Fold this protein.
Amino acid sequence: MGTKKNIYKKLFSSTFYLSAFTFGGGYVIIPLMKKKFVDDLHWLEEDEMLNLVAIAQSSPGPVAVNASILLGYRVAGLVGAIVTIFGTILPPLLIISAISFFYTAFRDNIVVNAVFKGMRAGIAAVIADVVMNLGGNVCKEKDIVSILVMLGAFSATFFFKINVMYIILVCGFIGALRVLMQPKTGPKEGVEE
Amino acid sequence: MILLQLFWSFFQIGLFSIGGGMAAIPLIQHQVVDLRHWLTLTEFTDLITIAEMTPGPIGINSATFVGIRIAGIAGALTATFGFILPPCVIVSFLAWVYFKYKGLKVMQGVLSGLRPAVVALIASAGLSIFSLAIWGEAGFFSAQSFNFISLILFCLAVFILRKWKLNPIFVILGCGVAGGAIFLLI
């Protein structure tokens, strides 16, 4: 059981470490997870990673926590999921508990504000990098529907501020419809976008 | 019983916060400020500011903050537990469905539709953070709040990430230290 224990340890330390650096919203954890679990540890394929993120997004609750649960479950079953839940919630729990005693001083501290302002540029860069990789892969498939879904979903969320839940539902529906319509020869109408 | 109230309030927030942290803010405000009066509106605004400055999901940050102020460490743990319980149960169920049926053709189709959508959602979140980093609260292309140093930091960081595939955490920390030093000096 030594190896299993090692996997749990690795899961805990990885999710703890990633969660401690997930500044600026849940999506930041995705490039960090991709780097750690897809590129470094090779525990997942990129496609499966995106599947898990899609499921995490379809459920209530924070994306970072949901994605960690799915990842833990995928790698080491139910125990793995419990381990990753703790790994993910402990850093914010500890940090906020500590800060809650002097939060006004923290909020108004000029050093904290300056560092955070700098970190925002870094966070934006990390997300830009992962979007270039993932978006590039979608375009490389040369599948026109996928590219349209990507552009449509982007406009829906960024310009029209449509709730993510509806975007997920519609895009999943489009995907299912494509598969169901495939075998028929010459369907009357294509998938509308 | 205050712990039970904390649990129940954050349980409801956890259950209904679909669509990311921003969607959770009005729910948290409703429970914590309007319904239970655990925080004043000013304290709540401070909480959101702090949640944005510290790592972790806004829901967990709020649960911990409110819990510890109302009922100490036990309160923080209870509120956090209440908040993550609904997503844990629902995600576990979705995980079970996914791993059981991921071979099905329809499931493959659904997932192939979701993958490009997820990339789009990440891109949208990234653009919002980019706008915040370069133009601050004023939003895109406002000339007076344009921050040239942040833009240079951003470009350098993207270059380093793409060229040397450096660990993103070091890049974020590096930008924090370098940017922090520059902003304090000027």
Observations:
- Chain A has two domains: 2-131, 141-193.
